[in-house]
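Q: How would the structure tokens look for this protein?
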Amino acid sequence: MEYGPSTILLGVMEITTQDLGSIGEFVASIGVIVSLVYLAVQTKSNTRAIRAQTRSSITDQVLTVQSLMFDSDEYRRAFAKYARNETLDPSERDLLDREALLFFKHMENAQFQYESGLYDSGEYEAQRRIWIKRFRVHSYWRDAWEFHKDTLSPRLVAEVQPIVDKATKSNESANA
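A: Here is the predicted structure in token form.
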């Protein structure tokens, strides 16, 4: 048997350079598949970390704002006056308006996080229940919504306006 320059003997087997090339391609394909699996695992892990970081950041922001507002005697007095339908002076009105806008911006952020996949549906539904409760319980939130809604994203307005409308009708029925 005569062997050419592209033939290698392996024991009793004869392998051509073309065969070696095919083996190399096969090994490279397996390497690509292993790399893709590794990348998928890392991406999933990174997504979980980003979700946790986002959730923590949002919670910190809300707690900071609420702490600043609710620890303020001025805020509590202004809100009590509003609840009693008393006239607010401009600084009291401004204080309540800023608090409402911060809350609405938080709502906007929660919706964005949900749409971006960083909030799961359970977290988002919990947020929505808070919104529904606020709009249903006190006219302050409905009034503030009407005042600020033109400064918010159209997607948030489209989602929240029916909640506000339903809360308004429900309160009108209860007062009739």
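The chain has a mean pLDDT of 83.

The helical segments are 17-70, 73-83, 90-115, 121-137, 139-148, 154-175.

Upvote if useful.
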